[in-house]
């Protein structure tokens, strides 16, 4: 399978812009159609009112002054009627046409005619007056409305499209930077961060921040893994080389005592390699959680005294003063063997990194919320830059790279305490370090 980097392609911006164009076209077309329909109804209602008003005025003249007077008034208004696109027919009871203005009118009843004109009539004493208003002015108003709306909508649609394209490009910029960063991992390495092109208060800004934090964490882990593997490879290569040389010398010898010595050497070297693998397995087991079958009623003071007694001789050989202050009856439900291992790792670090003549103190006490187990030393302290990472797997501070170990001790401590719902706090300076393990009282009895 090829591992060549894939060239990223950015089509989301174009797709979103095209979708916006489609939606805006549909919405704009719908608005134009709705406006055209409503305006058409409004103009038709206006025509109906004009026709009804004019017809009512002529009806009053006919009723008050008589049919002949109405003919005179209609003759007087002929120019007005024709200019205003009115169509009028006035017939006598015998069907004789007394007055006509505009194109001919069908004999249909009131309402819209075939040419979309609005017609309305009135009949009294056999006389019939019919008035209609042509649809041409109404159609012209609708045409002007459509033209005006198109002149407004098209530039607005174009401007909004350009604005959306700009906003889409600006919004997707952090995602594109993230994609390019992921695509360039093989080329640029893990330490290169994604530029913060969005505000941390936005979702994209938070995504970029979390990605950078995660990549930094992975970079630290990979770097620690590389250093740890280098150290482990050296530590494993040395005992394997010693075993091979010891076995070769034993095979070249006919002395059974030399064979026995070679076997003892191989057993010792195997024990060192097994310790490394044991640490890794112990951390994995601790991270999987506390086994209920191993949970028991244990007293922390007794565990701490056992651990302290184990390291008294090592501390004495190094010229260290090891003291304990242990409150009585600090009972806890937990894995005694795992807790003993965690406390031993913390005390081992204190002895390892405290110079001759220093002091180490182990305290255990109870307050209103916790049972606190504290390890204090007057050693070299931990660099502030290393302090946030000391519990990470395979991480070793600069001053610890020259001492035996694999960077797994504190990781195991953290995993064991997590399994007991406890937390650990670390304070360190050039005057020494303090590790404070806090067990909740609801886990004690």
From TrEMBL:
Q: Which InterPro entries match?
A: HAMP_dom, HATPase_C_sf, HATPase_dom, His_kinase_dom, HisK_dim/P_dom, HisK_dim/P_sf, Sig_transdc_His_kin-like_C, TCS_sensor_his_kinase
Stretches assigned to the Histidine kinase domain? 231-443
Which domain of life does this protein belong to?
Bacteria
The record lists the membrane-crossing segments as 18-39, 148-167
Could you tell me what reaction this enzyme catalyses?
A: ATP + protein L-histidine = ADP + protein N-phospho-L-histidine
* Principal subcellular localisation of the protein: membrane
Q: Which UniProt keywords apply?
A: Kinase, Membrane, Phosphoprotein, Transferase, Transmembrane, Transmembrane helix, Two-component regulatory system
What EC numbers are recorded for this enzyme? 2.7.13.3
Where found in the cell? Membrane
Give every HAMP domain span: 169-223
Protein name listed in UniProt: histidine kinase
Q: Which organism is it from?
A: Zobellella iuensis
């Amino acid at each position: 399978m090829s591992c060549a980097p894939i060239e990223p392609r950015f089509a989301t911006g174009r797709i979103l812009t095209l979708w916006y164009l489609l939606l805006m076209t549909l919405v704009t077309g719908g608005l134009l159609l709705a406006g055209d329909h409503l305006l058409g109804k409004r103009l038709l209602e206006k025509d109906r009112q004009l026709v009804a008003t004019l017809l009512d005025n002529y009806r009053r003249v006919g009723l008050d002054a008589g049919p002949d007077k109405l003919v005179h008034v209609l003759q007087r208004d002929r120019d007005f009627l024709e200019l205003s696109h009115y169509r009028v027919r006035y017939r006598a009871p015998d069907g004789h046409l007394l007055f006509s203005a505009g194109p001919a009118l069908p004999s249909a009843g009131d309402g819209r005619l075939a040419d979309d004109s609005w017609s309305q009539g009135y009949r009294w004493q056999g006389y019939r007056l019919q008035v209609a208003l042509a649809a041409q002015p109404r159609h012209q108003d609708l045409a002007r409305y459509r033209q005006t709306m198109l002149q407004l909508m098209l530039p607005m649609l174009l401007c909004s499209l350009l604005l959306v394209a700009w906003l889409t490009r600006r919004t997707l910029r952090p995602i594109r930077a993230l994609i390019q960063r992921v695509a360039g991992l093989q080329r640029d390495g893990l330490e290169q961060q994604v530029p913060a092109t969005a505000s941390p208060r936005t979702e994209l800004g938070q995504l970029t921040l979390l990605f950078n934090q995660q990549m930094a964490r992975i970079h630290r882990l990979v770097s620690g893994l590389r250093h740890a593997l280098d150290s482990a490879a050296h530590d494993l290569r040395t005992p394997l080389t010693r075993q091979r040389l010891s076995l070769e010398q034993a095979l070249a010898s006919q002395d059974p005592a030399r064979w026995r010595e070679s076997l003892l050497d191989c057993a010792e070297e195997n024990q060192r390699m097994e310790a490394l693998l044991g640490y890794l397995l112990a951390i994995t087991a601790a991270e999987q959680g506390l086994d209920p079958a191993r949970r028991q009623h244990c007293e922390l003071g007794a565990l701490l005294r056992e651990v302290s007694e184990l390291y008294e001789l090592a501390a004495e050989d190094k010229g260290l003063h090891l003291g304990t202050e242990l409150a009585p009856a600090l009972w806890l439900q937990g894995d005694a063997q795992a807790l003993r291992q965690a406390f031993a790792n913390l005390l081992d670090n204190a002895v390892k990194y405290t110079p001759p003549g220093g002091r180490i103190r182990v305290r255990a006490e109870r307050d209103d919320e916790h049972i606190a187990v504290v390890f204090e030393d007057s050693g070299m302290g931990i660099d502030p830059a290393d302090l946030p990472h000391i519990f990470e797997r395979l991480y070793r501070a600069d001053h610890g790279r020259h001492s035996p170990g694999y960077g797994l001790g504190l990781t195991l401590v953290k995993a064991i305490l997590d399994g007991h719902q406890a937390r650990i706090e670390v304070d360190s300076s050039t005057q020494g370090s303090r590790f404070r393990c806090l067990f909740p009282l609801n886990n004690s009895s």
